[in-house]
Amino acid sequence: MKIFDYLEKYDYEQLVFCHDKNSGLKAIIGIHDTTLGPALGGTRLWNYENEEEAIIDVLRLSRGMSYKNAAAGLNLGGGKTVIIGDPKKIKSEALFRSLGRFVEGLNGRYITAEDVNTTTEDMSYVNYETDYVMGLEGKSGNPSPVTAYGTFRGILAAVEEVYGSTDLTGKKVAVQGLGAVGYELCRLLKEAGAELIVTALSKESIDRVVNDFGAKAVGPDEIYGVECDIYSPNALGATINDFTVDKLKCKIVAGAANNQLKETKHGDILKEKGILYIPDYIINAGGVMNVAEEFVGYNYEKAISKVSTIYDIVKKVIEISKEDNIPTYKAADKLAEKRIEQIGRLSNIYLEK
Description:
Blueprint: H1 3-9, E1 14-20, E2 25-33, E3 39-40, E4 43-46, H2 51-71, E5 77-84, H3 87-90, H4 93-105, E6 110-111, H5 120-129, H6 144-163, E7 172-176, H7 180-191, E8 195-199, H8 203-213, E9 216-217, E10 230-233, E11 252-253, H9 264-272, E12 276-277, H10 280-283, H11 286-292, H12 300-308, H13 310-324, H14 328-344
Parallel strand pairs: 3-5, 3-6, 4-5, 7-8, 7-10, 8-9, 10-11, 11-12
Antiparallel strand pairs: 1-2, 2-5
């Protein structure tokens, strides 16, 4: 790939390659945009097939964080780190401390946190070498329960739009993915009176939700075609694709998984089918909202209050979608881009520092 052409196309600021022979660290830090503030985004550890795949991923993810943070009303830009390697083999104190030194070298332009295949314990090692890390134990900690709560709030906003009320009693929700976020979301939905239809790759995870919440289990490939009010993807991305989009028998797609649309055309198809899609980076922003509270001194009640506003943000996206007659994924981008543009104009006002 022509890296600088890609950076120019989507207006990236920086791509940093980090290598430490001693610890085996091979990492890439992507900083997309710092108009709103320092770039915040987690560290993902993945066994990429090649270096180009890792580069594309960190660029895509860092840009996504710019939009997520902007739409969430945070004074933060977008960044991401990917570490190349097998999570089962390369993790060590030295590896994460080495990463911490590279983060420290960016002098606050980028702040990291946990992500796929990294934990709060891993981030504690990063924290030995830099203060530019969030999501630590004793502070905001594990973001999964808060992400689930934000997703739940987004679902309520969608249900009110489609059904005229936030009442979930008797609503059928097809939940795909029953990890930390999916399980907690099931709990919240069940408490609100919803009926659960669930699937996951892990039988243990399925059995747990069936036993705890009286859910009905279906096979992984069956979940797309079940009769339901809401399809909620909470596992891997790209589950809305050429093979699944026509199978959906729901009125709403709303879940915490990242990159739910395989291609943007699938968002267009959902609109044509009359299915309300709540863009992933809007509805799953609870985790980053929670982490961001560490900037001002973490307070759980204040964080939850902030996450509750996902309901209002979803409403704004729906409003833009209806006013401009555009799919909701485009409306979400428009909301984020407008805020970045407006705040960026403040740089024209001179302040002596």
